Amino acid sequence: MLLLDRPNISNFLKDTIKEHYLPVIATQEAWKQIDDISLNWVSEADAIKELKSGDSPLLYTNSENTIKWIQQHLKGTELLRKVRLFKNKIRFRELIRDIYPFYYFRGIDFEDLERISPTELKFPLVLKPAVGSLSMGVRKVHTAGQWTAAVKAVKEEINTYKGSFPDVVMNTSNFMVEEFIDGEEYSIDCYFDADGEPVILNILQHIFPSGEDRGERVYTTSKEIIAGLKDRIEAFLRILGQKTALANFPLHLDVRINEKDNIIPIEGNPLRFGGLCTSADLAHHAYGFNSYDYYLRGKRPDWNSILKDSDGRKYSVVALGNNSGVKGENVLYFDYDSLLSDFRRPLCLRKIDIEEYPFFGMLFVETRKGQEDELEQILTSNLLEYIREKDASSINNN
After folding, report:
1. Residue ranges of the domains in the chain?
2. Contacts by residues 100-104 (CB-CB < 8 Å, ≥ 24 positions apart)
3. How many C-beta atoms surround the C-beta of residue 382 within 10 A?
4. CATH class of domain segment(s) 101-179
5. CB atoms inside a 10 Å sphere around CB 186
6. Mind listing the pLDDT tens digit for each residue in 77-123?
7. What residue intervals traverse the membrane (predicted)?
8. Which of 2, 84, 141, 293 has a Cα-to-Cα distance from 251 of 20 to 30 A?
């Protein structure tokens, strides 16, 4: 069963729903996104009854906006407990504390961010909302001397995009500081089957332009990345699944692997794969299978066959977050044609309204060996070369 909401349902997911006649909960928001009477619509009343009938109902959501519906209609269920456990980073850290006893973290109320003495904290650290999304309000802070400036920057960023997301997705009343983990960062699409066994559907490396910039711009998957990490991550997921009693549960998990080769989870996003239908759709481009179908029908990728021949190709999602310094309301238009011309093999472009969300869109690209320069270029770009601003008179009139 699928629970759908804004901001995005990809054409690939829509086609999957239609092709396999997958049941969709008939919420008002779902109807707004897919106004198609031919779908396998399930009334909210019937869906609630089915989802409450067992501890491990089969459910997939495309957006964390759906958590509000789950909170309203599935109170007291094991499903809601697990959603809250993963969505709140402090609760999640407390759950796995015995696995990572060395790992430093602490919760701080929003109003205490400016009051707390930095001498009480352990640096370097990462400051982030306890309930957040898309790296908004996240800052790496090296020293106590940088604390005040970091808090100020976080508050300014939050005020800029306040109202773009519901409280269940972005709630800034509580923050968390946690030890900075030096190492490579990866995002994992997986699900836990009816027996609690983990099934890996994709592994993407989160590429950063520098050690200081923790923004979301490029996520890359390849056969080499999967082959090098699959067995270790699968073993780690098995431990995590046992700790949290997961079954029939999809998860998008961010981890870091430190210099000692320890896999340390950063956060888990429940009941979905990568946000905005990105990483699951990318897996189809890269490896030819359908992650949505595999989860809902309990299928596993044949990784031995998929990884048999290495081709050196990389498949990436480029998140076009607005790091230009230009406010969304001051953008006349974004030159998508110019953007596409800077890539040799663009696969798919999804445009996003910059006045509603802090992104211009998502671009899917294939990169052949020796052509990584195009990824390096977009990784460090502030996107100003693609932005056309409104003239001063039109801005003043608005």
Report:
1. 2-86, 101-179, 183-389
2. 100/264, 103/178, 103/179, 103/264, 104/178, 104/179
3. 12
4. alpha beta
5. 21
6. 999 999 999 988 999 999 999 988 888 999 999 899 999 999 999 99
7. none
8. 141
Residue 223 token pair: 């056969």
Amino acid, res. 226? I
Structure tokens at 233: 């991550």
What is the per-residue burial (b if ≥16 Cβ within 10 Å, else e) of 215-239?
bbbbbbbbbebbeebbeebbebbee
373 class by beta-carbon count within 10 Å (0-12 exposed, 13-18 middle, 19+ buried): exposed
Report the length, in residues, of the chain: 398
- Residue-wise DSSP of 188-255: EEEEE-TTS-EEEEEEEEEE-SSSS-----EEEEEHHHHHHHHHHHHHHHHHHHHHHT--SEEEEEEE
Residues 169 and 65 sit within 8 Å (Cβ to Cβ): yes
C-alpha closest to that of 220 among 114, 341, 337, 363: 363
Give per-residue pLDDT as tens, 12-43.
Answer: 999 999 999 999 999 999 999 998 999 999 99
pLDDT tens sequence across 261-283: 999 999 999 999 999 999 999 99
Chain centroid to Cα 157, Å, comes to 19
- Cα separation, 261 vs 203, in Å, equals 17
Model pTM? Answer: 0.92
pLDDT at position 16, please? 98
How many Å separate Cα 90 from the centre of its chain? 18
Class of domain 183-389: alpha beta
Q: What's the one-letter identity of residue 398?
A: N
* Helical ranges in the chain per DSSP H: 11-19, 28-33, 44-51, 67-73, 78-87, 89-95, 147-160, 223-244, 279-287, 291-296, 303-306, 336-341, 373-379, 392-397
How far is residue 396 CA from its own chain's centroid?
A: 36
CA angle 102, 107, 111 (to 5 degrees): 155
